[in-house]
Design brief:
This protein has about 425 residues and is mostly helical. The protein contains 17 helices and no strands. Pfam families: BPD_transp_1 (PF00528).
């Protein structure tokens, strides 16, 4: 067993490992491990030095010579370089920690495990991380990298008039966000679209939840017969692909030949401009979303209602509770407790519900003084800015705002939900 060496300094081992991986292990007389760390770091530097050098330069400058430097490619290479450096930094920190731990063992005179024992311990302790790492790497390059790219574009001037490779991009800081609230046309459009997005999310989602709950309560009533048949009929709208339903409703709400105006409202001498008046288009969209969304909520609530013990209602009857009191004190709390996360997802999903807005009327009709349609929500406006007017920078800025709103709302609501606070106590 080695003797204690109080003169052996862990700080020196850490400093040497910080300077270059493996030097701290050599200082600790862990020669095989130190040589392996040196080979790994040297191989990394030789392999990635040029890629990282160009990537970081491109990330800072976004190119210097038009038609030769492509700002988008340089930006992507720079972001990949940042991810690779983050991985390398994590491994380098692990190397420093390992050198410190070995130095402390040597200082106390504790024996070092053999190379085989070290590998076996690393396998036993790191088994979950080894199998998670491939998925994590894939997640970084499939999900995180596009998000970083979108966030980066929000701080550039990438639009139709600054499009690579003919022109180079420039970092503009928060100018795009300032333009959203300062330039009249952007300001008017942004706040109008944001207000409608919030109204659309709250009203449409609340109506589909309320209708689903109402129908679930009716069907769950013991006096109702043919429950299976009624449930099947009410779930049928969910079975039809939503884009087919939206296109059918778009034809039915058509001002000129739609069945609603010609066959229904004509009986009362009324003709509503469903497609040409923004107000009535919004009404139609909310009604359609209610129709599309209530079957899922109905099925969800039906399952929860059947799980409520009848003993609770019998005890409430003995106490003389009314129907409303039983609903308020037993049914509603239990339903919300069990389904709150899914209901929050309904709100978040409708906030970014692109399909119905685009398929029904392409976000129209047009509105004077705005560069968005009268029923465009933020996500459909982002689509138009990207694929119609090529305002990639503004689209990225608005997308970043959307992400912050949805994630902030979801996190706040999830943390306040009793099903998360008291998980397992139901």
């Amino acid at each position: 067993m080695p003797e204690a060496n109080v003169r052996h300094r862990p700080a020196v081992a850490m400093a040497l490992s910080l300077l270059f991986a493996g030097l701290g292990q050599l200082y600790n007389r862990r020669y095989v491990k130190g040589i392996l760390f040196i080979i790994i770091e040297a191989s990394f530097l030789l392999t990635f030095y040029n890629f990282l050098n160009i990537g970081l330069w491109g990330l800072v400058t976004l190119g210097e010579i038009p038609m030769l430097d492509h700002s988008i490619f340089l930006l992507i290479q720079g972001l990949v370089s940042v991810i690779i450096i983050a991985f390398a930094a994590a491994l380098h920190i692990a190397n420093i920690i390992d050198a410190r731990n070995d130095a402390r063992r040597r200082q106390r005179g504790e024996p070092f495990p053999s190379l085989w024992e070290s590998c076996r311990n690393a396998w036993d302790k790191g088994f979950p991380y080894i199998f998670v790492t491939p998925g994590l790497v894939m997640l970084l390059f499939i999900v995180v990298l596009p998000l970083l790219f979108m966030v980066s574009l929000a701080f550039t001037d990438y639009n139709l008039y600054h499009s690579p490779p003919r022109h180079l991009l420039n970092w503009v800081g928060f100018e795009n966000f300032k333009n959203l609230v300062s330039i009249p046309i952007w300001k008017s459009t942004f706040f109008s679209v944001l207000a409608w997005t919030i109204v659309w999310t709250v009203v449409a989602t609340t109506m589909q939840i309320a209708l689903g709950l109402f129908l679930a309560l009716l069907v769950n009533d013991p006096r109702i017969k043919f429950k299976r048949f009624i449930r099947t009929v009410l779930i049928l709208p969910w079975a039809v692909p939503s884009f087919v339903t939206i296109l059918v409703f778009a034809a039915m709400f058509n001002d000129k030949f739609g069945a609603i105006n010609r066959e229904v409202l004509s009986l009362f001498g009324v003709s509503v401009p469903w497609m040409t008046d923004p107000f009535w288009t919004k009404v139609a969209l909310i009604l359609i979303q209610t129709w599309l969304g209530f079957p899922f909520v109905f099925a969800l609530f039906t399952g929860v209602l059947q799980s409520i013990s009848r003993d609770w209602y019998e005890a409430a009857d003995i106490d003389g509770a009314t129907r409303w009191q039983k609903f308020k004190s037993i049914t509603l709390p239990h339903v919300l407790y069990a389904t709150a996360p899914l209901l929050i997802m309904q709100y978040a999903g409708n906030f970014n519900n692109f399909n119905i807005i685009y398929l029904f009327n392409h976000g129209g009709p047009a509105v004077r003084g705005q560069n968005a349609g009268g029923t465009d929500i933020l996500i459909s406006w982002v689509y138009d800015l990207t694929f119609t007017t090529n305002n990639y920078n503004m689209a990225a800025a608005i997308s970043l705002i959307i992400g912050l709103i949805v994630s902030g709302f979801a996190i706040y609501q999830f943390r306040r939900t009793r099903s998360f606070k008291e998980e397992g106590n139901i």
